[in-house]
């Protein structure tokens, strides 16, 4: 299965493994970060990490949008805090590396980023579930860090040890 790094213009000096960008980072009001944040310049392309089918697209957080794609064996990946690419809609089939959106901004001095989450795909219903603390996500949420670790070495041309911390 071909896999592609989701944000070619990712600013690798900001590790997705460090607070506040990492999976499991503590947030306000007892909430826990349900994904990883990949900082990139505003408007940077967001790519599908592998082939799949769009299962949801819509509003996400603070004026940004999300696209969720069922990537088969990889599960469902939610690409959040983006502007959705024109022509992409529910049930669209996508190829690995296809542009699915563009990095957006939350404002308030928060750097532009792709917020990315992974779900096993073993449950049904909305991915956000405010009744399921601490992540406030559907019960099949997974830590996407291992998947990102697998892809980052290829993206950086073998320099993955530099971002492993």
Describe the structure.
It is a single chain. The chain is mainly beta. It has one domain (28-163): Distorted Sandwich (Glucose Permease (Domain IIA)), CATH 2.70.70.10. The chain is built from one helix and nine strands, in the order βββββββββα. Strands 1, 2, 3, 4, 5, 6, 7, 8 and 9 form a nine-stranded antiparallel beta sheet that branches. A hairpin with a 5-residue loop joins β4 (65-70) and β5. The longest helix is centred in the C-terminal third of the chain and has 11 residues, at 145-155. The model has no long low-confidence stretch (mean pLDDT 91). Its cofactor is Zn(2+). GO terms for molecular function: metal ion binding; metalloendopeptidase activity. This is M23ase beta-sheet core domain-containing protein. Keywords: Hydrolase, Metal-binding, Metalloprotease, Protease, Zinc.
Core attributes:
165 residues; mainly beta; Glucose Permease (Domain IIA); nine-stranded antiparallel sheet
Quick recap of the structure?
The chain has 165 residues and is mainly β.
CATH topology: Glucose Permease (Domain IIA)
Q: Provide the residue-averaged pLDDT.
A: 91
- Supply the number of structural domains: 1
CATH class wording: Mainly Beta
The 3D shape can be described as globular
β-sheet strand percentage = 25-35%
Supply the CATH superfamily name.
Glucose Permease (Domain IIA)
Radius of gyration: 15 Å
What structural class do the secondary elements suggest? mainly beta
Provide the helix percentage: under 10%
How many strand elements? 9
Per CATH, the architecture is Distorted Sandwich
